[in-house]
Design a protein that fits this description.
Helix content is 13%, strand content 27%. The protein is α+β, with helices and mostly antiparallel strands and 212 residues long. The structure holds a DNA duplex (13 and 13 nucleotides).
Length: 212
DNA sequence: ATTCTGATGCCCT
DNA sequence: GGGCATCAGAATG
């Protein structure tokens, strides 16, 4: 019989690290969702690290609120938020013990359930575009507010993070985070070099100072 | 390829 | 009331 060992599920412990380390660890890993239409899985190729406390770009910079509460909890949970009045973005929580941190899932390659994903996002002009961008990624996986706080390291969860083929260190590139107007000196966006699903960089809204 | 702009609602000040 | 961790469509090289 065909023996195909199931991919290993990531553990809460290995995600209980600094978001920068968790971000690099998550590249190449697979987020799998059991949707009503069937399974959809995405190989992560672009992520960003967010810290609490000292990171002005983080939702947790100004303390704990109802929205960011999950980021203060244990690692391996999904933090979903609603943005621009129409999109959802998803993070995987890292660190723990009341220390907030998370990894924004910015883009991935759909490796399972391409037909389902295409049906969900008819505007995509190519397979690579299906999950190219954080809101597109939540779109193909069907993630919304209802999934906030779900435990991705639980084997019985309808949403799981699985280990993938390791990404060679030389294929991991780093740069400033997309769409943030502060902390542009820190290269906390990480992506897999050469993947067609990596989103194009856009700088944050507030331009620097105007003199005069 | 890049630039612009409208859509749209929730969270926080 | 200001400002978003965005996307799609259009116009322009």
């Amino acid at each position: 019989m065909a023996l195909m060992s199931a991919p290993r599920q990531l553990t809460e412990q290995e995600l209980s690290v600094d978001p920068v380390d968790a971000a690099k660890l998550l590249l190449g890993c697979v987020l799998q969702a059991d949707t009503p239409q069937g399974p959809v899985a995405v190989r992560l190729v672009e992520v960003e690290a967010y810290r609490g406390g000292d990171d002005p770009a983080s939702h947790c910079y100004r303390g704990r609120t109802p929205r960011n509460d999950v980021m203060f909890g244990p690692a391996g949970r999904l933090y979903v938020y609603f943005v621009y009045g129409m999109h959802y973005c998803a993070n995987i929580v890292s660190l723990t013990d009341g220390v907030p941190g998370a990894v924004l899932l910015r883009a991935g390659e759909v490796i399972t359930g391409v037909d389902i994903a295409r049906a969900r996002r008819p505007s995509a002009r190519s397979t690579a575009e299906l999950a190219k961008g954080p809101a597109r990624l939540t779109g193909v996986l069907g993630l919304d507010r209802a999934h906030n706080g779900i435990n991705l390291t639980d084997p019985d969860s309808p949403l799981r993070v699985l280990a993938g083929d390791p990404v060679p260190a030389e294929s991991i590139k780093a740069g400033p985070r997309v769409g943030v107007a502060v902390a542009m000196d820190v290269p906390w966006r990480f992506w897999v070099d050469g993947s067609p699903a990596v989103s194009t960089y856009r700088r944050g809204g507030k331009r620097g100072t105007r003199s005069g």
